[in-house]
Task: inverse folding
């Protein structure tokens, strides 16, 4: 009598509903933070950088990935993510001497900021862009379109659970 | 009684408290719990298995890593040990436990480790070498253990063999518990074809066929006692994704409760039950096999996604406490190790099919601690010793040498204080000048041990060599919590063998009237 995992009318596994507890609502990234995260992801994984891999993070429905993450990641991880996001977002002034947010920087300056953090002598500062890069890659590199672009053709092309069936689409351009 | 697997979707419909009873209630369905259930049911013992995670059918598994993390990994793959550096701790939360997400690597316990357990921990009578081999032979047969065949080696594994051979180091195709592997390199996401003989496709179904009732998505919260003995478990069914609580359950054990919930969860359950206070060792002596890796870029395509996830290894330096393994990384994880951000990162990612990855795992000296924090969260404190860091440095240097010996055009060591990419092993010599600091590299902790150690003396151990708790008759611990030391090799087979022998003793004691009936 194995195999009793049930599906609802939309084909989701039974019990797939997101957690809606008060704590979860308080710790998961706000809409504004999610928008800023997408801007950072876009900087880490830009479109058009290589003809073999023209898709960037903004070409995939990464906002749904971020939303899904907010519903499933452990509380501490979400708090860490939000802290790191603001560290990067407000980093230009203390790290580059520029009175702007990350969203107000040009592409090269955004990369310079992330690279500067990654080379920091401080472990915590080094880990900040690493966490954001990890999450960006976890979503972006799991998409079948990216797999196909890098030659990973042996996997099935079923989209990740967080990605909708609709095709790639562009995320908001700015987040400042 | 007929066997069954039930989880929250089934019991919510019932809309009531779920009660059941059996001779033995087993908590956990991984290498230890499923093996205990397999042995006991075939000896005619009535068994209930309680598993916190869901049963995830093959068809629900997706190709991407994050989908795997969210469906079968604990904490969506984000569980970390806290020390000087953060270290991800790899664990599953699903039927089959971590056997459902590991690389299917099978090793028997090294003889020197067994000798030390006998000599220093008094476990000779409980774990006779011949009896262990008898069990391993059976496990090999039932779980289809054999060396990775050439057809699914893939170039990530072949190149590692080439590098090791060029350096004159011994190595071998990995012995794996896989039946007709298709080489999809998706072990970490959950095998999509059910070829890996993890417990969810081997011993759990087998125990169900023999009458076991497996309750999945059932989180044990409390141990029940009666007359000074363990008498059952109580808890709640939990939504596997959101954590919402469902119906309560009470499962009564007529003879024994067996904890097999892992070296992280078992000590938390013991502590909550107040067991092990005399020794003060519950949750202490946490040990692991930390691992780290380097990436190599080759002129030829490597295509890590073709072949066994882990197909080649070297135990050449096992006596120096290190073991080397190939490990095919999906791009979701591998891309993080590519240096830089933005366009530079994208250009490397476009070339990802030329990247190989191999890792080193060390038999670390470090001891950590597992406990429940003030807010109720699980806390894992674990920091590598300076000696462990030096071992890791040596291991990473050797990996780099292997990469170049195999023909890598450049290596990405991923080490703070060294260049992002190197074209010869020479820059690795600078590693010795850098501090012995675990924050130099990114390590992960796999293979978890020691948080409810076994031994004959209640002052220095939590459970007896039989696995029964010193302080509570009828309560057994069968997972790697009881291991007095780490092994230096992948532990699944040793965990199963130790659990197997414990289960035989539980059955024997029951037959002889040595375990009280409630």
Result:
């Amino acid at each position: 009598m194995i195999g009793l995992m049930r599906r609802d009318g939309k084909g989701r596994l039974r019990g797939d509903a997101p957690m809606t507890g008060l704590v979860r609502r308080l710790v998961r990234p706000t809409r504004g933070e999610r928008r800023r995260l997408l801007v950072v992801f876009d900087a880490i994984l830009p479109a058009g950088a290589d003809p073999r891999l023209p898709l960037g993070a903004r070409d995939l429905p990464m906002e749904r990935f971020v939303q899904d993450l907010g519903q499933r990641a452990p509380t501490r991880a979400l708090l860490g993510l939000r802290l790191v996001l603001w560290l990067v977002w407000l980093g230009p002034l203390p790290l580059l001497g520029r009175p702007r947010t990350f969203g107000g920087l040009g592409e090269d300056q955004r990369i310079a900021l992330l690279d500067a953090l990654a080379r920091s002598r401080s472990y915590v500062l080094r880990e900040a862009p690493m966490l954001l890069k990890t999450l960006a890659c976890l979503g972006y590199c799991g998409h079948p379109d990216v797999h196909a672009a890098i030659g990973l053709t042996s996997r099935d092309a079923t989209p990740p659970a967080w990605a909708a069936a609709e095709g790639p689409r562009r995320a908001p351009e700015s987040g400042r | 009684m007929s066997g069954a697997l039930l989880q929250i979707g089934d019991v919510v419909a019932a809309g009531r408290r779920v009660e059941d009873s059996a001779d033995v209630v087993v908590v956990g369905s991984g290498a230890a719990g499923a093996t205990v259930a397999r042995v006991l049911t075939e000896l005619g013992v009535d068994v209930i298995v309680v598993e916190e995670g869901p049963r995830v059918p093959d068809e629900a598994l997706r190709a991407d890593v994050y989908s795997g993390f969210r469906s079968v990994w604990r904490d969506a793959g984000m569980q970390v040990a806290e020390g000087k550096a953060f270290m991800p701790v790899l664990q599953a939360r699903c039927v089959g436990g971590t056997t459902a997400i590991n690389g299917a690597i099978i090793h028997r316990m090294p003889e020197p480790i067994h000798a030390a357990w006998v000599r220093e921990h008094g476990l000779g009578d409980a774990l006779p070498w011949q009896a262990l081999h008898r069990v391993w032979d059976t496990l090999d047969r039932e779980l289809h253990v054999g060396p990775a065949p050439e057809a699914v080696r893939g170039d990530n594994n072949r190149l590692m063999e080439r590098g090791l051979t060029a350096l004159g180091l011994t190595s071998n195709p990995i012995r794996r518990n896989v039946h007709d592997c298709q080489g999809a390199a998706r072990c970490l996401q959950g095998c999509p074809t059910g070829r890996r003989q993890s417990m969810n496709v081997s011993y759990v179904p087998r125990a169900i066929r023999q009458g076991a009732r497996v309750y999945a998505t059932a989180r044990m919260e409390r141990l029940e006692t009666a007359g000074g003995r363990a008498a059952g478990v109580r808890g709640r069914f939990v939504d596997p994704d959101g954590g919402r609580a469902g119906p309560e359950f009470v499962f009564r054990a007529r003879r024994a409760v067996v904890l097999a919930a892992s070296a992280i969860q078992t000590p938390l359950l013991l502590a909550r039950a107040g067991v092990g206070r005399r020794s003060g060792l519950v949750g202490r002596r946490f040990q692991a096999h930390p691992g780290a890796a380097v990436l190599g870029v080759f002129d030829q395509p490597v295509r890590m996604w073709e072949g066994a996830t882990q197909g080649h290894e070297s135990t050449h330096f096992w006596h120096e406490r290190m073991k080397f393994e190939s490990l095919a990384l999906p791009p979701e994880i591998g891309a993080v190790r590519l240096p830089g951000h933005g366009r530079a990162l994208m250009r490397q990612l476009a070339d990802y099919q030329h990247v190989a990855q191999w890792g080193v795992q060390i038999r670390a000296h470090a001891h950590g601690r597992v406990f429940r924090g003030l807010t109720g969260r699980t806390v894992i404190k674990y920091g590598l010793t300076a000696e462990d860091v030096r071992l890791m440095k040596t291991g990473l240097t050797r990996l780099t040498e292997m990469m170049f010996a195999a023909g890598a055009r450049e290596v990405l060591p991923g080490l703070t204080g060294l260049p992002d990419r190197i074209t010869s092993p020479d820059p690795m010599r600078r590693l010795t000048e850098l501090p012995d600091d675990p924050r130099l590299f990114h390590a992960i902790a796999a293979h978890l041990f020691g948080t409810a150690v076994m031994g004959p003396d209640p002052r220095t151990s939590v459970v007896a060599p039989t696995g029964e708790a010193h302080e509570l008759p009828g309560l057994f611990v069968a997972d790697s919590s009881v291991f007095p030391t780490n092994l230096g090799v992948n532990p699944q087979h040793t965990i199963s063998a130790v659990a197997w022998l414990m289960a035989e003793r539980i059955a024997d004691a029951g037959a002889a009237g040595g375990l009280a009936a409630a």
